Amino acid sequence: MSEKFADKNGAEKHAAEKLIYGFHAVLARLRQDPSGVLEIYLDLTRRDARARDLVKQARDNKVGLAQVEADRLNRLVGKNANHQGVVARVKPVALTHSLDEVLENIKGPPLLLILDGITDPHNLGAIMRSADAFGVHAVIAPKDNAVGINATVEKVAS
């Protein structure tokens, strides 16, 4: 396990790892990149169909799953996060590619979305969800003066 520390909201953080939360975000990552999911934490009171599906997906992909109390989930992502009873530790996704690399891998005319100055993670997540629905091949965004990809962005985008 990597070095652990807490952020300003009291949420636990691990260097070289990232936390995502919410059923859609965790299931999407599990289906898309199971090797990138290090461990899943599930509220031990969740026994509904969504929880059973998550347990099955984790087992099928050989991803560790720990059933924990809700307080543990709150400590992981902060008490204000709507984690829906599920949090996952994941490897960060490499997001930087050169424009040439992106264009080489697109067959046909490229559809690119270029963003600037998006600072609200909910807005970025909604934009990315819409971009996916419209078949956008790549989203280009600045590193500075903009929100990065975080758990909120992933949850809203999923």
Quick structural gist:
Helix content is 35%, strand content 21%. By secondary structure, it is α/β, with parallel strands linked by helices.
Features:
158 residues, alpha/beta, 60s Ribosomal Protein L30, Chain: A, 2 domains, two-stranded antiparallel ribbon, 35% helix, disordered N terminus
Task: Describe the secondary-structure layout.
Layout: E1 4-6, E2 12-14, E3 18-21, H1 23-32, E4 37-43, H2 49-60, E5 64-68, H3 70-77, E6 86-90, H4 99-104, E7 112-114, H5 121-133, E8 138-140, H6 151-157
Parallel strand pairs: 4-5, 7-8
Antiparallel strand pairs: 1-2, 3-6, 4-6
Helix pairs in contact: 1-2, 1-6, 5-6
Description:
Residues 1-6 have low confidence and may be disordered. This protein has 158 residues and is α/β, with parallel strands linked by helices. The chain is 35% helix and 21% strand. The chain is globular, with a radius of gyration of 17 Å. The protein contains 6 helices and 8 strands; from the N terminus they run βββαβαβαβαβαβα. The strands form 3 sheets. Strands 3-6-4-5 form a 4-stranded mixed beta sheet, with helices on both faces. Strands 1-2 form a two-stranded antiparallel sheet. Helix 1 packs parallel to helix 2 (49-60) and helix 1 crosses helix 6. It folds into 2 domains: 4-90, Ribosomal protein L30/S12 (60s Ribosomal Protein L30, Chain: A), CATH 3.30.1330.30; 99-157, no CATH class.
